[in-house]
Amino acid sequence: MEFRIERSALTDAVAWAARVLPTRSTVPVLGGLLLEAADGRLRISGLDYEASACIEVEAETVRAGKVLVMGRRLLDVCRVLPEGAVECAVEGSRFSLTSGGARFGLSVLPFDDYPALPPLPEVLGVVDAEEFAAAVAHVAVAAGRDDTLPTLTGIRLALDGDTMTLAATDRYRFAVRVLTWKPGQDGVSADVVVSARRLTEIARSFGRAGMVRLAWDAGSVGFELAGMRTTVRLLDGRLPRHDKLFATPDAARAITDRAPLVEAVKRVAVVAEGGSPLQLAFSGDSVLLQAGYEDDVASQRLPAALEGSDGLTVAFNPSYLMDALASFDAPVIRFELMGPGQRAMVTGWGARKDAADEAARPTHQHLLMSARPLV
């Protein structure tokens, strides 16, 4: 096996495939990347028991063949190679990389125990890569981190016609984002749970590259775009439905600008230690943020508009509130408040007049459970 390729192209391809490699594994070959050169193309693939990744790039093939090498070590080498063309070849039991006078030799792993790359499931349709990445980022902040509750560490991915719904919850917050996609046929419907960490990595890796082909079967979901293909195993179980939970009848509404609120939350939360909540006291034309207890306290007042109540005070976990606010891109934030200790809906809007529209339906919603305010 022998091929030539530009250093930047090789580094990018190796980095993309190496995302799925396990940090630790009882099967050493799962730490390897498989490189296959033929017909002017270089194919790099990696996998573990949860996910797989495969990418193809152009490369000058001198001698066709394949090699399995440790993926993270290969990535480290690629990152320090001089700029320019890289000559790669299998020489006995080593894989050599030569560029600009620098030369590296990596040990070759045996193929015998390396599993076959799983096939891409049936393609169901396409979704815009940039919109999909933004939607995943919006909801991933609400996914659980407790591996003893694996289903809650996932993102619900539901398809109904041309509507795609992404949702995540850790039982204390619940984020939902709805977007459109293009099904390949009529009657496409699915409802699965995918690891939030894996889905976030996948969505980020495609960036703004165009339309992603979406595929899945009973056990996995797959994505394909511009020579990049990845699959991830589905999580068992189902996330709870959000429809009834997101209904907020007779809620008071508070509207304020997002950027000043984010800065105020960061500032006031400095004194919120030991899990103490951050309190928001809404009145007719302002909101007073307060945190701390007894010795160390902080507060800041911001303009806000409150409707449906003469005054209402709620409190939130500062980290959860900050995560929710940071997940929005819109300049205006609307709170729908059921009362102290009850659920509160947070949505983002392009303008205050839009946020005041009773009939408007936001595509991105974040539900928080409020705590009892400090007396």
Provide an overview of this structure.
The chain has 375 residues and is α+β, with helices and mostly antiparallel strands. The protein folds into three domains: 2-107, Roll (DNA Polymerase III, Chain A, domain 2); 123-233, DNA Polymerase III, Chain A, domain 2; 252-369, DNA Polymerase III, subunit A, domain 2 (DNA Polymerase III, Chain A, domain 2), CATH 3.10.150.10. 18% of the residues lie in helices and 44% in strands. Strand 8 (94-99) and strand 9 form a beta hairpin. The N and C termini lie far apart (73 Å). 40% of the residues are buried.
Secondary-structure topology with pairs:
Blueprint: E1 2-6, H1 7-18, E2 32-38, E3 41-47, E4 51-58, E5 60-63, E6 65-70, H2 71-80, E7 85-91, E8 94-99, E9 102-107, E10 123-128, H3 129-140, E11 154-160, E12 163-169, E13 173-180, E14 182-183, E15 189-195, H4 196-206, E16 211-216, E17 220-225, E18 228-233, E19 252-257, H5 258-268, E20 278-282, E21 286-293, E22 296-303, E23 305-307, E24 312-316, H6 318-326, E25 332-337, E26 343-349, H7 352-355, E27 364-369
Antiparallel strand pairs: 1-5, 1-7, 2-3, 2-6, 3-4, 4-18, 7-8, 8-9, 10-14, 10-16, 11-12, 11-15, 12-13, 13-27, 16-17, 17-18, 19-23, 19-25, 20-21, 20-24, 21-22, 25-26, 26-27
Helix pairs in contact: 1-2, 3-4, 5-6
